[in-house]
Amino acid sequence: MDAPAPAPAPTPATEFSVKRLLPSLAMDVFLPIITFNALIAMGVSTLIAVTAGGVFPLISIVRKYVKTREIDALGAIVLFFLVVGTAASLISGSVFFAIVKDSFLTATFGLIILGTLAIGRPLPFQMIRQMVAAGNEAEYARWGKLYDEIPDFRRTQQMIAIVWGIVYIAEAAVRVGLALVTTPAVVVNVSPFLAFGMTIALALWTRHVMLAARDRRMKAMAELARAAEATSAADPNTSIAASH
After folding, report:
1. Does the pLDDT value for residue 5 go beyond 50?
2. What is the mean predicted confidence (pLDDT) over 223-231?
3. Cα torsion for 26, 63, 187, 82, to the nearest 10°?
4. Three-state DSSP class for 120?
5. What's the rounded Cα separation, in Å, for the pair 60 and 75?
């Protein structure tokens, strides 16, 4: 059985791009911070101000649904936590819970990632494949074949999942710790940048690791081809037999 071809270099559509991140940066970082500070300046309670900032991730999910008419598994998880977390915050009246509820989502996401390692293809692989294939069934299937048949590719994806899971859990712990030792205003103004910066760092690291793995596979395939050519040149009978 022929081994599947190495994954191609990322296309401009899938490469890391600050421009492509601007909508998320606005919805997940700047608008929640601006809303919180504006409401506090207007004399609104801290609980309501914190809760109001959480509406923007919900808007992102709705906007994506309107555009694609579907909500993926990750979007469904986020939506569930947003609704339950917001309701619990308002019912309990706890400002602390309101500012750490997103950390519970982050930690749960990290645990889910680690859990998928035990039951099959890890979640980060599924997410990356979905992004790269972008509705291309042949490319989608090729990525599945790469995972099933290329051990180095599979190990790379598993390593990515382990790092993602650990980092998301650690980031959630840092944000909860921040909430314990600082004021709600500090948490609201700092946490989004911490979370977004961590996501960008993970994206850049993941791209680097995957390109390095692709280069290793290409180098290994080239060496095998050279070895086969050398064997054929050293043993003319092999070439004759192969031609027949």
Report:
1. no
2. 76
3. 180
4. coil
5. 10
pLDDT digits (tens, 9 = 90+) for 59-118: 777 777 777 766 666 666 667 777 777 787 788 788 888 888 888 888 988 999 999 999
Q: Indicate left, alpha or beta for 120 from its phi (over 0: left) and psi (-120 to 50: alpha).
A: left
Does the pTM surpass 0.90? The reply is: no
* Dihedral of alpha carbons 197, 202, 205, 207, sign: negative
State the Cα–Cα distance between residues 87 and 85, nearest whole angstrom. Answer: 5
Band (pLDDT 50/70/90 cuts) for residue 200 is confident
Phi-psi region of 134 (alpha: psi -120 to 50; beta: other; left: phi over 0): left
- Residue, of 240 and 39, whose pLDDT is higher: 39
Cβ neighbours of residue 141 closer than 8 Å, sequence gap 6 or more: none
DSSP letter string over 168-220? HHHHHHHHHHHHHHS-HHHHHHHHHHHHHHHHHHHHHHHHHHHHHHHHHHHHH
Output the six-digit token pair for 116. 């998928």
Distance from the first to the final alpha carbon of the chain: 20
Q: What angle do CA 228, 230, 232 make, to 5 degrees?
A: 70
Q: What length does the chain have? A: 244
One DSSP character per residue, 1-56 reads -PPPPPPPPPPTTTS--HHHHHHHHIIIIIHHHHHHHHHHHTT--HHHHHHHHTHH
Q: Are 175 and 100 in contact, with CB atoms under 8 Å apart?
A: yes
Q: Is the dihedral of CA 39, 40, 42, 44 positive or negative?
A: positive
